[in-house]
Amino acid sequence: MTAAGSTAPADERPARRAVLIAVAIDVVLVIAFAAIGRASHDSDVWTGLWQTAWPFLGGLAAGWLVTLAWRAPAAPVRTGLGVWAVTLGGGMLLRAVSGQGTALPFIIVAAVTLFVALVGWRAIDFAVRRARRR
Question: Within 10 A of 21 (CB to CB), how many other CB atoms are there?
């Protein structure tokens, strides 16, 4: 084992900065999802933003833990799909147990929007990195 309890050599692990950037991007995108959703329903975005966002932020945290996302934070398939699925499922579960709505149309919109956000930025990053290597 190498430093920090990882079996990967230090030069193969993502830099701490890359992990922090990936976490920040995910958090900003989940908050933006909640803000856009509130705004689209003529709600006061700022007043209820935390109420709308917290279940999905909790799901996002669980997604990072379940997928061990810090090992490959920008991987669209290995990390992105898992983080998306757990964020969506966990977010809906937390909304349900806290008495918030989980109507089927909302689940569909949330699934598509969070997929585009959480997997999309990783896919773009992957494509850019691949193009730069050529």
Answer: 14
> pLDDT digit of tens for each residue in the chain (134 aa)?
334 444 455 556 789 999 999 999 999 999 999 999 999 887 788 888 999 999 999 999 999 999 999 999 999 999 999 999 999 999 999 999 999 999 999 999 999 999 999 999 999 999 999 999 98
Residues in the chain: 134
Q: Which residue has the tokens 């920008």?
A: 74
The total of other beta-carbon atoms located within 10 Å of residue 119's CB is 19
C-beta of residue 22 within 8 angstroms of C-beta of residue 76? no
CB 37 within 8 A of CB 49: no
- Can you tell me the distance from the alpha carbon of 84 to that of 89, in angstroms, rounded to the nearest whole number? 8
